Amino acid sequence: MSDDTDRAPADEPTASRARYAPRTYRVPTHVRTAPVDGEAVLLDMRQNLYLGLNRTGAAVWEVLSRGGSEHEAARDLVRRFETDLDTAAGDVRELVGNLLERGLLVR
Amino acid sequence: MMPTQSLYGVPVACSWSLPLPPTEAPAVARVCRGAVGARGNVLWRTSMPEGMDVLEHAAGRALVGRACRAGIAPDRIRLRAPSRDVAEQLLLGPVAGTWLDLRGEQVLHGACVQREEGGLAILGPSGSGKSTLAQALVDAGAQLITDELVRIDDDLRVAPGPGYTRLFNAAGVKERRLTAPARTPAPLHAALILSTRFTEVVPLHGVRAVASLLDNFYTPSWHPRRQMPLRHELACRLAQHVTIYGGPARRLHPEHLAVAFARERERSRRR
Question: CA-CA distances (angstroms) from residue B216 to A23, A60, B48?
């Protein structure tokens, strides 16, 4: 992935630009995912747990699980749902933090 | 030579005749009566025909109750019970469920009837009214496919089980209501999940549908690691390809379903 895709466009607010890190993640081998009706169900085989992601969570997961960055995921949310980039970036960051904490995504 | 019968779609050779469809396919397991040991680690406890411990050991599993026992290996089932009737009840319920689970098959807890639209699986915990609703649908003209265990194959068809439902009589004892056994699997069209969580029949989608299905696998209290990805895959496939409904436990009649399903069909048509 080029750095360009992770860089905030010049016309975006400075606060948002500062938060965009060109950081990507991968899905560990003990996690399986299946999309269902626009949502997603994750299976954590290490902890024997099933977890559900709503539509926005599933959209973020889709981008991150194929190697996309947080910024790409936020832009995707703006494109698909009625939200602004700052809100989307905050939501992505919160979800990523949660997924990292649970070991469902790794850096 | 022992006749071969189809136990939830899997051919078994059994020395006595069971209320199951015959099959020409070669048997993959033999069912017989005899002594059974009681060793292994406890996996879970069944609710029928009495509270029985399911044990796991290197060669397979054992079900151990006060009066009954069953030894279960992938290619052999051995039963010890005080009567043939109890042995049959044991075999067609918890033993078959445990045996199918041991073979890596996906089994849900519920009943299934074939209606004009296709198979309708009725899932839910014990006492939620699955068999009662299935019997009411059979009385209204549907074909019973199975009661107690719902085995779903790769093509999302439900394998035929024994030709009866088991309903509580006035004395609180489960009694068989015999019906003509189905011969062929039923392509699944819809699944209705009975639970006290629901106050009316509602369509379930996405994560909610998958979560409700995952609660109704035959051994929900015990998640064998190798089964989890298979259950995950099947529940997601069902949620994608089959209409899933939630409905109130112990309160539904065929007329309620007809109204709810018609409403949902109309909604889908408008979408």
Answer: 39, 29, 16
Does B19 or A94 have the greater pLDDT score? A94
Q: What share of chain B is helix, strand, coil (3-state, %, to 5)?
A: 25, 35, 40
Distance CA(A71)–CA(B67), nearest Å, equals: 64
Residue B205 identity (one-letter amino acid): H
Tell whether the model's pLDDT for residue B19 goes beyond 50.
yes
Residues in chain A, how many? 107
Residue A3's pLDDT band, with cuts at 50, 70 and 90, is very low
Tally Cβ neighbours within 10 Å of residue B208: 18
Looking at residue B71, its pLDDT comes to: 95
The residue assigned the tokens 């069912």 is B31
Q: Around Cβ B233, how many Cβ atoms within 10 Å?
A: 15
Question: Between chains, do B207 and A41 touch, taking CB under 8 Å as contact?
Answer: yes
Q: Quick check: A48 contacting B, CB < 8 Å?
A: yes
CB contact under 8 A, B210 and A43: no
Contact B207 A54 (CB under 8 A): yes
Tell me: the pLDDT tens digits for B196-239? 999 999 999 999 999 999 999 987 555 567 788 899 999 999 99
Least confident span in A8-17, B88-97, B127-136, B205-214: A8-17
Q: Which of A2-6, B82-86, B96-100, B139-143 has the least mean pLDDT?
A: A2-6
For residue B41, the surrounding DSSP H or E stretch is strand B41-46
pTM recorded for the entire structure: 0.86
CB of A37 within 8 Å of a chain B CB? The answer is: yes
Closest partner CB to A32 (pick from B210, B211, B229): B229
Contacts 24+ apart (CB under 8 A), B44-49: B44/B219, B44/B221, B44/B222, B46/B93, B46/B94, B46/B97, B46/B98, B47/B126, B48/B89, B48/B93, B48/B94, B48/B126, B48/B174, B49/B86, B49/B89, B49/B90, B49/B93, B49/B94
Whether the link from the prior residue into B162 is cis, omega within 30° of 0, is no
> Minimal Cα–Cα distance from B75 to chain A, Å?
28
Phi and psi at B11, nearest 5°, equal: -70, 130
- Residue A30 sits at the chain B interface (C-beta within 8 Å): no
Give the type of residue at B211: A
